[in-house]
Amino acid sequence: MTDSVTWRTNKAGVNIPLMVMADPFNNFAELSETNNKASTTFTVNSDTRPNLTIFYKDILITPNPVHSGGNMNVSALVKNEGSSSAADINVSFYRVVHGADSLLLGAQTIPSLSPGSSARVAVDWTNIPESGEKIIYIQVDPANMVPEIREDDNDAFTTVNILTLPDLAIAAGSITFSPAAPKEGDLVTMTVAIQNSGEQAASNVIVRLSESGVVLGEQAISSLAGNSTASISLPYDTTSKKGVHTITAEVDPDNALNEQSEENNSASRAFGVQDANLWLTEQYISPNGDGVKDSTQFFFRLETSQTVLIVVVNSKGETVRTYSNPELENTTGGTITWDGLDDTGMMLTTGSTRCGSWAQIARPLGHGRHDRQQPLSFGRGNRHEVPVEQ
Q: Is 85 domain-assigned?
């Protein structure tokens, strides 16, 4: 019986020993075990082909970190570890996303690479439209046009994190006034907090405050890091300005910065310059959605900081709407807007075209047996009527 095996040589040499053994573990009983092996020698000549290699540690990405909307340079070191030169070596660069088609970033050709030498090639990815972690995959001689000793060392990859664009945002709740319920002649400090929810920093961030289209002032934040908050403050003189003032805050009002969204760059909030401790902007409201007196704002001012509760009660003394939030805690003044709805979202009605309702503010008074929610007086009573027109 004859048998044969194929061995792909992986080294060169002269007089390389080769031994063949039959029943090497003596599993069979035989007359003699001395003739179960034989040996010979053979010579393996050196492979004269080139061998192109690339290693992931030799991949360089600049700048790092990479910014969405920016540019990135990817370079790789290609080596020839074979015995002869290679010519016209194609090197292709790809962006790979799991479960999606790869994107060819570019390709370079190395004219010639002699044995033992190396060459660095690079491509640029410009105006990067993506963000998040990506795989950068590089393949040498992807079409196998160069005969080589081996092909399994012709590719490598690395990962890169692409930072999202800045996302500057202002919410109505991020606009505050101090004092919260000023009287005429007070100097009010308007403070605006700006959130950057993107990963990239934003530079020279302009914040502008205006009222009814008239610019009150603006300030610049020199740098706002990603996922962070900064604030600006401007004064407002209330002399001869009794009434309601709606302040609009805009970040990047001239759209000078490249960011994820421009839809969240402005917000508005009102405060009242008061001549009383309790004050309503509208004595009558008609919440029918026509934009005319659909709601009323209720302002209050306290002598000392208190945690307050604001309730709306009907003509029977029944509570129909309650306001309690962090902005009403430990405060000397504030405001709420009532739209004629109760706590369930239903419009108040008594079956006629008008129902009497009023706002009532309550706050803790003193300590001990008096430490409970009590109404704060307004005018001749503790309620201010706001008739609701249907």
A: yes
pLDDT grade for 98, boundaries at 50, 70 and 90:
low
Global pTM? 0.65
Contacts 24+ apart (CB under 8 A), 108-113: 110/78, 111/87, 112/85, 112/86, 112/87, 113/50, 113/52, 113/78, 113/79, 113/80, 113/85, 113/86, 113/87, 113/89
The pLDDT-based confidence of 281 (bands split at 50, 70, 90) is: confident
- Mean of the pLDDT values across residues 17-24? 85
Contact 205, 220 (CB under 8 A): yes
Cα separation, 322 vs 308, in Å, equals: 11
pLDDT at 349: 62
Q: What number is the average pLDDT over the span 26-46?
A: 81
Nearest C-alpha neighbor of 42 from the set 14, 19, 7, 20: 14
| Residue bearing tokens 């970040």 | 251
Task: Decide if 1 is inside a domain.
Answer: no
Backbone region of residue 152 per phi and psi (left: phi > 0; alpha: psi in -120 to 50; beta: other values): alpha
In tens, the pLDDT along 154-169 reads 999 999 999 999 999 9
Return the structure tokens found at 377: 């007086």
194: closest CA among 213, 217, 220? Answer: 220
In this structure, the answer to whether residues 88 and 173 fall within a common structural domain is no
Beta-bridge partner residues of 276: none
CA distances from 193 to 131, 207, 226, 325 (A): 26, 10, 14, 19
Owning domain of residue 109: 52-163
Q: Which of 110, 137, 163 is the C-terminal boundary of a domain?
A: 163
Cis (ω within 30 of 0) for the bond into 179?
yes
